[in-house]
Amino acid sequence: MLRHILLATGLVCATFSQADEQLKRLNLPAGYEINYFAKNVENARQLAVSKSGVVYAGSRRAGNVYALIDNNQDGIADRKIVLAQGLNMPSGLALKDGDLYVGEVHRIIRFKNIDKQLSKPNYEVVFDKLPSERHHGWKFIRFNDEGELLIPVGVPCNVCAEDAQFGRIFSLNLQTKQLTTIAQGVRNSVGFDINPQSGALWFSDNGRDMMGDDIPPDEINRVSLNGEHFGFPYVHGGSVLDPEFGKDKTLADMQKYTAPKLALQAHVAPLGIHFYRGKQFAKNMHNKLLVAEHGSWNRSTKVGYRVMMATIKEGEITAYEPFITGFLDKEQTLGRPVAFAELADGSLLVSDDFANAIYRVRYNKK
């Protein structure tokens, strides 16, 4: 049974009361509470947390990279630093060995030893061979267990012919500067995570537009082998042939492509996904896959605008249930969840690029 959570407090660059209207509308399972970790973080997208607890956030249209510092460790950021401005959709970021990597549309940049350079941040370009097309060009990045940087490159269109530069998730070796195709036939992935139990890469994918309100499905996928093809532009959601690029395909052809582990409702726009690793939440949440449904933009009635949780058993999704709802009031958009990160105490951060906020979710064991 869901319940309303009414918890808010003063924050960096903003003052707001306990009756904050946004938090009043958000619903979580019983026992969970939600607060603001930070407000006024324009267009907050992917998050990363350093070992010292600094929270970094990218953005898309704002062009900024932020550092958020909780000096007194009360779960609320006290200070916001803009590390860089005017970047090319710096949506994706990741930390490795104390360095902050930022994915722009056309390149990867790095802030070395970032926690110790907050007063005078500067960056260097580490890879600049990515396509410059901005349509589906914003990034979500993450390091894999081998230390290579996973980088998606979405297609520069609604639907178009295959091209070796686009519609893929690549792995970048930072020493050799070589790109390896991890997954292809991927229209626009803006979220992935590695299952800590199996080591398998899971990713979200946004389906094509202009086929109506209810097709094709959006997708949650699992990579079983490098170079696996997930169907775009021929087959969408494992079951819907594209009217242009799939018109000559047969059922046998469709079966050559990997079907999603979960076909979602069309247009819910899954972005960040995250396996919960912490111990602060209830035990039944351990290793749940959280999915940020960013929400539709071109559907006659809106769908998505929520955080979901998937149960995975033996590589299959056995349940898909709401975790945070209330970002949509009938047809009025109140928020659009994007991505996740965990703090050291196991509480969960959720970014919202519509409300310009980062929420903190924790389990109240009382």
UniProtKB/TrEMBL annotation:
Spans traversing the lipid bilayer: none
Origin superkingdom: Bacteria
A Pfam family matched in the record: TrAA12
Record-annotated Pyrroloquinoline quinone-dependent pyranose dehydrogenase beta-propeller domain positions: 28-211, 255-359
InterPro entries per the UniProt record, alphabetical: 6-blade_b-propeller_TolB-like (IPR011042), Beta-prop_PDH (IPR054539), Quinoprot_gluc/sorb_DH_b-prop (IPR011041)
Protein name: Pyrroloquinoline quinone-dependent pyranose dehydrogenase beta-propeller domain-containing protein
